[in-house]
Design brief:
mainly alpha, 2 domains, about 65% helix, globular, HD_phosphohydro, N-methyl-D-aspartate receptor NMDAR2C subunit
């Protein structure tokens, strides 16, 4: 991608960080080519929330909790790839993103157990079931940390999600969005790990309740 596209005042993906990660986890991978592919995907015009800023914010949260991970490199790789594919008009974005991660790791000659764990972590971001192991729980919490951000950032997130679904008529969007947020709020815990519960749970519940009331 043209480097000038990284100078628009928006958070940008860090190629050096990516290449260092790949050198540890998938050393045979052409990391620069893979980075260019990922950067282009996250710059797709239909993405308002699931873009480079989201990945940058996830990596910032990851840096705060990397010491809690059993394998930090696997968690970080999964974060980089978990929204490599994003479609608001159907399809299985998580499964396709997981397949992309598997392809890159196989090209990089990563061990098969690593490949399977990364795949499972990305699939866990469907948020439809309990994460299957501790690193997956940590990754899911990072992905959901946006729910517990300050009200201004959360509101911008909600606006960006609406932009990604601007093709959905207003009444239908509000109905489906409310249904999803109510289901989240009904959970005993929004976050699986103690760190995220302590830091984000209270604010997340306030944000969700306020959003539901506005729909």
């Amino acid at each position: 991608m043209d480097p000038s596209r990284r100078s628009e005042g928006k958070p940008a993906l860090d190629p050096e960080r990516w290449e260092a990660l790949c050198s540890r986890l998938a050393p045979a991978l052409d990391a620069r080519a893979a980075f260019d592919e990922l950067e282009a995907a996250h710059a797709e015009s239909h993405r308002a929330y699931h873009n480079a800023e989201h990945i940058v914010e996830c990596l910032q949260r990851f840096d705060e909790v990397a010491g809690l991970a059993q394998d930090p490199d696997e968690v970080e790789f999964a974060l980089w790839l978990h929204d490599a594919i994003y479609k608001s008009r159907g399809g299985d974005s998580e499964a396709e993103s997981a397949a992309w991660a598997v392809r890159l790791l196989r090209e990089g000659r990563a061990p098969e157990p690593t490949i399977r764990r990364v795949e499972s972590m990305i699939l866990a971001t469907k948020h439809s079931a309990e994460p299957p192991f501790p690193d997956a729980a940590l990754m899911v919490d990072i992905d959901l940390s946006i729910l517990g951000r300050d009200p201004a950032r959360f509101d911008r997130y909600e606006q960006d999600v609406r932009r990604e679904y601007r093709w959905v008529p207003g009444p239908l969007f509000r109905s489906k969005r409310k249904e999803m947020l109510v289901a989240f709020l009904a959970r005993p815990h929004l976050y699986a790990t103690e760190f995220f519960r302590e830091r984000y749970e209270g604010q997340a519940r306030e944000n969700l309740a306020r959003s539901i009331a506005s729909l």
